[in-house]
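Re: How this chain folds, sequence and tokenised backbone to follow
Notation: Tokens come from a learned vocabulary of local backbone shapes, not from coordinates.
Start of record: The labelled sequence and token lines come straight after this line.
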Amino acid sequence: MYAERASRLTGAVVWTNTPTGAGGRAVLPDGCMDLLWSEGRLLVAGPDTRSYAPEGPERSWAGIRFFPGTAPALLGVPAYELRDLRVELADLWPAARVRRLCGRIEAAADPATALEDIALDTAARVAAPDPLLYRLVERLDQGCPVSGAAAELGIAARTLHRRSLHAFGYGPKTLARILRLRRALALARAGLPYAETAIRAGYADQPHLARDVRELAGVPLGELLGGG
């Protein structure tokens, strides 16, 4: 069973997922990176460009999902180095530090809250994320074209692409495409007909939406929605 709540860390979400016996659900691209805890291990989920299907038997997870573009400042690693990867936190941070954090989580009554506390402690020691990134995500999520967002932010397209690779793991066009898919899924799950969903989310038409769903999620829209 999946559950989430808003984090005390700005823009982040704290979540838990416990086995239900129904099989693991694929994780769709969302522009975010996560710090994960499961069975005594701390891991980082990098930014996805395609659907990710968990392997192996079901197990319990706790995580904190960072607002798009903010995790690299906390983790100290560019997002593009973790694109489409799940890696041990000990591969990014000193092993002794990670062992201490694992002990802290294991001793906590609620692993998810302990993860959140670790993220808050880390955020207090590093530079704040670039506010331009928040504005970029906001404008792209509103359907603004990348060129329009770059002009509004007063940044050259090449510079925006370079900064996006560092912050999001891919360029702004890919980020815009992923955010558009998220908008479409929210509309479709609210009961809007697929054709209207496509137009309101920013697609040219329903076939355009269908192609994007297949490429990013790996399954047809109807199957994706039927699965959850």
